[in-house]
Amino acid sequence: MLLYSQSFGSGRPLVCLHGFLGSGDNLWPLADSLKASHQAWLLDLRGHGRSPHGRPYTLEGMADDVAETLRDRGLDQVDVVGHSLGGKVAMALALRQPALVRRIVIADITMAQAQPYFGFLLDAMEATPVSTFTTRQEAEPYLREAEPVMETRRFLLKNLIPVEGGGFKWRFDLEGLRDDHPHVLAQVLDAPPFNGPALLIHGTRSELVTPEGVELTRRHFPALRVLDLPGGHWIHVDAKAQFNAAVAEFLG
Prior knowledge:
- 34% of the residues lie in helices and 19% in strands.
- By secondary structure, it is an alpha/beta fold.
- The chain folds into 2 domains: 5-115 and 185-251, Rossmann fold; 119-173, no CATH class.
């Protein structure tokens, strides 16, 4: 599947992969900070943003989508940055298609299986009567119990798009991702190691990166370096300047 992409900047190609329920726009601040040295490619993963929908949703299938899109754009030996789900997809890409990847940055995730904790939130989204709304903000109270953090709710509401004739709809494939999200949070499948440079940036307030997950990831990425930055799971937002500087230094 060919994915929707945005590209800007000049230099070495940098592929940016967003997290679950996000879009390529989420990593725009990083890409903008590197535009003098890298040509950024912001991809929307399958079922997200402006990319096509299509089940099943799996890490391997999403990684193959990225590989197909890169080849269609004539790209190889790219640097890849992935946050959360995007990090898992980036690792699957590097292990399945090592010739495509030069360096990889993984933001606050490991190869290990993550808990399918999105179910309650996805159910709340499904139950929200978005077709009756006149503004996105009307949806916000419906998500408070499922997602107590206001910033995250605002981020999620960016996925609401107006419908001709009135009301809104979710831009991502809500039904498909709700049913399949345990598969995209699963452990990245075993494969021969990727021996290129790899950096894992962990938010110190996040619980998604465990010592066991780091050990598993290092077995498959033997050159892995781990960097702790102050912040939560959205480490590229919580510690934006430090995150961007660390990625720039690592990419060289």
